[in-house]
Amino acid sequence: PTTRYYTFELRKEKLSPDGFERTVWTVNGQYPGPLIIANKGDSLVIKVINNLGEPATIHWHGIFQRKTNWYDGVPGQTQCPIPTGCEFTYTYALDQSGTYWYHSHFLAQYVDGIIGPLVVYDPEDPYYSTCDDQYVVTVGDWYHDPTSVLLPLRMAPGYMGLNPVPDSILISGAGQYNCSSPAAGSNCNSKVTPATYDVVQGKKYRFRIINTSAYAFFFFSIDSHKLKVIEVDGIPVKDTDVSIVNVLPIHCAQRYSVIVKCDQPIANYFIRAVIPDRCVPRPNNTINYNSSLTNATGILHYDSATSEPVSTPYSYDLPPCEDLVADAIRPYDGSKPPAHVTDEFLFNVTIAPNANNVSTFRINNSSFEPTFNNPSNLRILETGGFSDFEVSQNAYGYDYPEGCVQIILLNSLRTEHPFHLHGHAFWLIASGPGIDPKNLSTFNLENPIIRDTTTVPGRGHIVIRYIADNPGVWAFHCHIEWHVELGMVAQLIERPSDFSKETVPEEVKALCVSYNNSVHKKR
Ligand code: C2O
Ligand code: CU
Question: Where is each Plastocyanin-like domain found (predicted)?
Fold first, then answer.
């Protein structure tokens, strides 16, 4: 095991990821940010220098942060925001392997560009040497307006409409916006080369696919090539015939690894990220999208191929906006959820106007609002426990060492929501239609999928279980960024008695002092 050092300078740059130039919030001037690579057992030391002109934090999506809850990057829950002009170093050990990503967790900042991939190798990964080579592919929606414009519209009093409409889909940071469309204006001038992946006929490749969207669900596919799913959110899964798909559904923040056999004639093939019709937001019920929005392409390039790709898309016959049928995929190691539950929570997800007539999302009738200057975990470390204050902040505590937590989430909204749990991966033991807690779908305690982000069906439910082996404060939220800002967030206070014995690093406390000073100065 080694310690790997990275420096992230957060700064704004003018970039044209899809041909349309805008200010992009970047890591080291790059969008997506640099790939972090490490081996299982390594430690990462990542110095974040914030030159954005606004506060920031970085979350390491899917990384458990055992004993380092204060480096999880959630403002209001695990740390104070890093003020502009300041730096903060995230230091944590990797006891997992697989495909992850990082993103800002401060307001909707990741939608403006602070995202990047994080891959952890493990020689004991069952698929470590089954492929000749591998690639990381990010797919994400992209907006020409900054979130400082989009968010106030989405959160306007009385607004009952849909989410902002993306302008493009990007594959590994490259998109093809139609510059001749009237909306393009004079900021649109470059034709962007699609993301291209070089392969050799006869070889096998692992593609690690990460959905970095604010909102969009995708069908991901490669013309004429099947995808064999071998990893789901960092967890290796069994390689069987049922795990081979033509089209891979992937929602916000989810990751999959697939094996692609390059056994087709030498040619160029389209790689596609498609937003199915029903998942495209349509303000005022008008259809408001163009081809670069609904069908983004990259290229799978066989070594000596020179001709243009011939379009041979698979048909998209899966239900839109739903996860891959969990029956097809089983955890590789066959690990089963505990049969006995020590703590159970029932979460009702609803929508209701707040005092300012903003339609906010609720979990058990309460909408999360972060207290940036006073994160929950530091309050618990100071006060030595879990007290009532958290109730107003959608906090739920449990204190049973190594207990099994069960969460039943009932989504009474019409649309689906990709829910993510920090600090853990969970067994998804049930998922289906209906919001009557007495009438849930049958629990699978034999071989359920394990992951960290799962799509809760509209007017439907999920049931998850995980082991309380990670004391700290862990966010549980929908990963549609607009829904986060509208409060669809809970915080799980895991084993406060044990957590309060941990020692918080001085620089974590010092960060809150600088943040509070920076806020005072502004007044
Ligand atoms: Cu990917 Cu709470 O985040
Ligand atoms: Cu949501």
Answer: 11-124, 134-304, 388-497
